[in-house]
Amino acid sequence: MAKMNMLHAINSALDITMAEHPQACIFGEDVGYFGGVFRATSGLQEKYGKHRVFNTPLTEQGILGFANGLAAFGAPALAEIQFADYIFPAFDQIVNESAKFRYRSGNEFNVGNLTIRTPYGGGIAGGLYHSQSPEAYFAHTPGLKLVVPRNPYQAKGLLRSCIKDDNPVIFFEPKRLYRASVGEVPEDDYSIPLGKAEIVREGKDVTLLAWGAQMEILEQAADKAESAGISCEVIDLRTILPWDVETIAQSVMKTGRLVISHEAPITNGFGAEIAATIQQECFLHLESPILRVCGLDTPYPLALEKEYVPDALKIFAAIKKSVEF
Amino acid sequence: MTNPNNVSLNLSHALEFIDGHALNIPTITLLDQNGNLIDGAHAPELDKDTALRIYDTMRFIRLLDERMQAAQRQGRISFYMQCLGEEAAVTASAAALKDDDMIMAQYREQAALAYRGFTLEQFMNQMFSNEKDLGKGRQMPIHYGSNELNYLTISSPLGTQIPQATGYAYGQKLKHIDAKTGELNSQIDAVTICYFGEGAASEGDFHAGLNMAAVHGSPVIFFARNNGYAISTPADEQFKGDGIAARGVGYGIKTIRVDGGDALAVYAATKLAREIASKNGEPVLIESIAYRLGAHSTSDDPSGYRSKDEEAQFRDNCPIERFKKWLLNQGWLDLSEDDAVKEKLREDILNALKVAEKVAKPPLEDLISDVYDTPIPALQKQYEELKEHILQNPDAYPTTAGRIK
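YS: structure for the whole thing
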């Protein structure tokens, strides 16, 4: 085990992949010698050469088009979109191409070798265009998998699973935690299964559910609740698509209550899908309405970020509301 | 002299703009309309078997197009797109490739697939989206694809295959790069050809794909079929500048423009393009100038946007006839059998159509397979619920009800 921040953990997962497959390629804007704006790919071009770790022209749709082609050829394509906010020019290549390659061809062709890494989320004073959480747009598209890690250990293990998975995967990296989150991470290879949520804290009064950077906020809220005598079960969803209905439903059947939190705007956010499904699965077990603590239906602001974000205090208020219903 | 801006600084003191058409790129043509080699033109090396296979493919596609256009009008298939007027451009370019080369087409390149060996039955099964369709009945007619024949399955969104071709070709090149020196170890054994129309060249994917191919040295042949119309929009409302070829030059890509009605010129240009791509590991652009004689698709009516006179002018310049005359000049074609072969092909096509339209639709399992490598739990659950519903109401779902396992 070594102490790593999330960037080191991601770098380590990429390094293992590059050593494993002679044709694996890492590409994106500034990812070459510079190592990416956040330095997630530092040192990899020196190690694996300019032909396998390279800068692309500034074209997100080009990066994903290229990635789809490379993956269809059979090479692991590790594409980076510098900020998730800038993934939209590549939207067509992802939702019409990556997601449907296998289905539309009757499995004659597939892009299972494709992994898209992209930093998402707020908390870095990035304003409208460096803070978005676009997971829900992609969660509406059959054929994709979506994964979000909460800390360095999770990041390395989940990223390795994304790369090994035989489907196109978008790996959303919580950029606020890149350097802020540090923990013990094995230097060797390991992987964490996709599609499985993790119960990170057991409790009996209310289930709290989030993913990525929001997990830290959820735990702070759970601490406040414990002090107030409320026992919280805290769950990290980890994989948004396909998501682990069973683990969430079992927990809610036990606690009778569910509070979901995500950074993205509340309307049509992925929390809505979870609320609808859990309501159906657990209707007779629910003691109170499922609550969502999310971003407002506004673009992500700059100056009033503190007011905007679903912070621990807002979640604590929702927990109280849920148990006092 | 170069500088950090990656341009050669040819300093000048005369304030002059370069005109958009200043390049005036020539159009390579070898055969006249009577199939005679034009004075000063050199025919490429083309053996008799290949030449006849090009001719047979063009003739087959013309007959298939005619029959399937009619089948759509009869309501037997939902949609069709003809290759009419561009048979030489598509067939001769495909003939200049090797079987391992990847073909990424737009949608009007059935001749390339036929040249590769896609059978009449396979064409029909796709168009009737029956259970034998390689694409499992998921896409509209003409969205062919075959892994075995290295022909990527067609996708309806326009131009998406262009940057994909760049990525695919990069993979083909990577196999030949020396990990230590970064140099090409050997000639690249397989390259990619990417077909698209002049309309698709307006999409962002075109610019992204060409620029990345140029910068990263992808061995891809970009084959622009400039056929005069993008659906109903004539080329002069699609772009200014000297065609699509001028853009290739702008991206730093070796570029050639050919007469797309001249199979010999297209074959020669594509052969050379393949050599450049495989030897140097770099992209090449070919702009084929032809005329889309048919409608864009069966949903289109060209009489609304072009005159009969215009069509007649081009109808007289049939690319198949032109090549046929050359074959006759070579003494390679026996005309006495030509009509009989045509008649036989027509019969085969009609028979294959009748067989394919009676083949069962795909089974219910094909509705949920291939979304992922294995069905995810939510989808599996939806499938079980659907199966139960169908079994309870079998009369409402006659295609699948009796076949549920």
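YS: worth flagging: Residues 48-73 of chain B form the longest helix (26 residues).
IM: good catch. Also The radius of gyration of chain B is 23 Å.
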